[in-house]
Amino acid sequence: MENFNMDFTSKVVINSAEQPWLESPMAGVERKPLARENRESGHATSIVRYQTGANFSAHQHPLGEEIFVLEGVFSDEHGDYPAGSYIRNPPGSSHSPFSKEGCVLFVKLNQFDRRDGEEVRVNTLEAAWRPGIGGLQVMPLHDFEGQHTALVKWPANEVFQPHQHFGGEEILVLSGQFEDQYGQYPVGSWIRSPHQSSHHPFVVEETVILVKVGHLMPAP
User: Fold this and answer.
1) By the 8 A CB rule, do 119 and 90 touch?
2) Contact partners, residue 163, CB within 8 Å, separation at least 6
3) Which distant-in-sequence residues (6+ apart) come within 8 Å of 98 by Cβ?
4) Which residues pair with residue 85 across a beta bridge?
5) Which residues are CB-neighbours of 91 under 8 A, at least 6 positions away?
6) What distance in Å separates the CA atoms of residue 34 and residue 45, rounded to the nearest whole number?
7) How far, in Å, CA of 107 to CA of 43, rounded?
8) Which end of the chain has fewer CB atoms < 10 Å from its terminal CB, N or C?
């Protein structure tokens, strides 16, 4: 699968829960592609599943790797990361990942600025929430020159102000159901909205989303 959802000027919505698992080159590791530049290299965003005892060969991250552990425990030679962990491996890093009990991950590969060398490890189940706009709570995870990654917790029946996405917005729904004037997005939904797009989001039930903004600026 090459050049899949690589037009960053178009909105993309995928309910990953309805997508089939596809085999990867490594036995016991499957994935659901959300966006992909080349079959096995370059820009990629995927849901990845490690079966019990599966491992992936040592590899480098030329332009970084970003992981959110959705289920199970993900591991590499640097540590063990339970569900709720946010991992950011900077450009030029490498590791040999595995999972003793199995896990499901949200993974973004080769999408960082080379100057952004921060390594991040956050267990979001233990980190503190901060007050956001209205009734929202926010857990910042990473920031770099107008790009921001965070968890956002929406209380039941919260309505956010209509707003525009400068530099685009990318959302993965982790719990509950996210909504806007265009549709309803249950758990597992991935929404990528382009630069200068806009919407008026709200929720009916308590909802948690992983959000990244400012990283989809058009090429100069």
Assistant:
1) yes
2) 198, 199, 200
3) 50, 53, 54, 55, 56, 75, 76
4) 123
5) 61, 62, 63, 64, 112, 113, 114, 116, 117
6) 5
7) 11
8) C
pTM of the complete model beyond 0.90 = yes
Q: Give 161: exposed, middle or buried? Use CB within 10 Å, 0-12, 13-18, 19+.
A: exposed
Do residues 147 and 212 make contact, with C-beta atoms less than 8 angstroms apart?
A: yes
User: What is the tens place of the pLDDT at every residue in 82-120?
Assistant: 999 999 999 999 999 999 999 999 999 999 899 999 999
What percent of the chain clears pLDDT 70, i.e. is strictly above it? 98
Q: How far apart are CA 58 and CA 79, in angstroms?
A: 15
The residue among 155, 146, 141 whose CA lies nearest residue 195 is 146
CA dist 215 and 103 (Å) reads 27
Q: Quick check: 17 and 194 in contact, CB under 8 A?
A: no
CA–CA gap between residue 212 and residue 216 (Å, rounded): 10
Give the CA distances from residue 158 to residues 136, 150, 202, 209, 210, in Å, rounded to whole numbers and listed in that order: 8, 18, 6, 13, 17
Token pair in block for residue 217: 């600026």
